[in-house]
């Protein structure tokens, strides 16, 4: 996706100060962080080789070189994996596929989680299936199928900012997760279309996307402001389905007896009875 390797390497060397890696910093530097020749020197490759790699016109790069560059740029585990993905993009382009379907057994599982809002996401964060409590919480059934997407709702929907009191943090996490998925699936049409749409329509998304942060949002805590249930503090867990590696089950897991769990129980009752 649009020169990801070069952009990623430039963004990462810009955040490393020369003195952090044992280099002297003399006078005014034209670029923030490390220069390309400094990365090459520290990684043990020629300057020309590194420049061609950053420009996306280098030869097939070895594990040893990628590992050395990751060490110099102080990449964490997820950034290291992302570097591998964008340095070796899949050569076979994926054709546009039919809309993914969630197996009936997964829907039964969702419905059985009556006390926990739960839903299934695709790689581009499209909401593929959900249970009744997730619908009461986030209103999936009121969205059109084309708009039923976590990232699209977050950045483009009129209420996208009011749902999450910590919107800035949630937005940054969402973009970092999308960036990770895009690196692993560079030719996924759903991801490509989503990134293009959000880049065109949201200045906040463009700024966050250009920052090249990568992070898998597999667990954590989100706060949700609901018009009926009020403010809910929701721990969540995300599980990749073994039989469907492109689908992720997300479940909110408040502690039994907590104020949030009690409010969710009331929300479920309200959604069922309207009272």
Could you describe the 3D structure shown?
- The chain has 275 residues and is of the alpha+beta class.
- It is 47% helix and 13% strand.
- It has helices spanning 4-13, 36-43, 47-54, 63-72, 77-87, 104-112, 132-138, 150-156, 160-163, 167-184, 189-201, 203-210, 259-273, and strands at residues 118-121, 127-130, 219-226, 230-241, 244-252.
- The chain has a five-stranded antiparallel sheet, with helices on both faces.
- Residues 92-96 have low confidence and may be disordered.
Strand residues, percent: 5-15%
The portion of residues assigned to helices is 40-55%
Let me know the number of strands: 5
| Structure class | alpha+beta
- What best-fitting shape do the alpha-carbon axes yield? elongated
Main β-sheet description: 5 strands, antiparallel
Question: Spans of 5+ residues with little confidence (pLDDT < 50)?
Answer: 92-96
Count every helix, treating DSSP H or I runs of 4 or more residues as helices.
13
User: Going across the major beta sheet, what is the strand order?
Assistant: 2-1-5-4-3
Distance between the termini: 49 Å
**Strand/helix succession:** HHHHHHEEHHHHHHEEEH
């Amino acid at each position: 996706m649009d020169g990801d390797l070069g952009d990623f390497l430039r963004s990462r060397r810009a955040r490393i100060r020369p003195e952090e890696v044992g280099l002297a910093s003399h006078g005014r530097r034209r670029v923030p962080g490390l220069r390309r020749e400094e990365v090459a020197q520290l990684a043990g490759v020629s300057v020309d080789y590194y420049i061609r790699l950053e420009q996306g016109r280098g030869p097939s790069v070895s594990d040893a070189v990628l590992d050395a560059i990751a060490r110099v740029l102080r990449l964490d585990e997820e950034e290291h994996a992302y570097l591998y993905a964008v340095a070796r993009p899949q050569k076979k382009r994926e054709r546009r596929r039919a809309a993914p379907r969630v197996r009936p057994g997964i829907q039964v599982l969702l419905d059985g989680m009556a006390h926990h809002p739960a839903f299934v996401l695709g790689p581009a964060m499209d909401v593929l299936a959900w249970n009744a409590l997730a619908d009461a919480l986030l209103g999936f059934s009121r969205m059109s199928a084309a708009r039923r997407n976590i990232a699209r709702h977050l950045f483009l929907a009129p209420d996208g900012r009011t749902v999450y009191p910590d919107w800035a943090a949630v937005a940054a996490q969402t973009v970092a997760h999308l960036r990770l998925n895009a690196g692993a699936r560079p030719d996924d049409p759903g991801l490509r279309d989503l990134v293009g749409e959000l880049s065109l329509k949201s200045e906040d998304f463009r700024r966050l996307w250009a920052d090249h942060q990568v992070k898998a949002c597999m667990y954590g805590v989100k706060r949700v402001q609901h018009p009926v249930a009020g403010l809910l503090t929701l721990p969540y867990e995300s599980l990749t389905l073994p039989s469907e590696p492109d689908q992720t089950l997300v479940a909110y897991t408040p502690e039994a007896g907590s104020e949030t769990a009690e409010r969710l129980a009331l929300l479920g009752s309200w959604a069922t009875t309207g009272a």
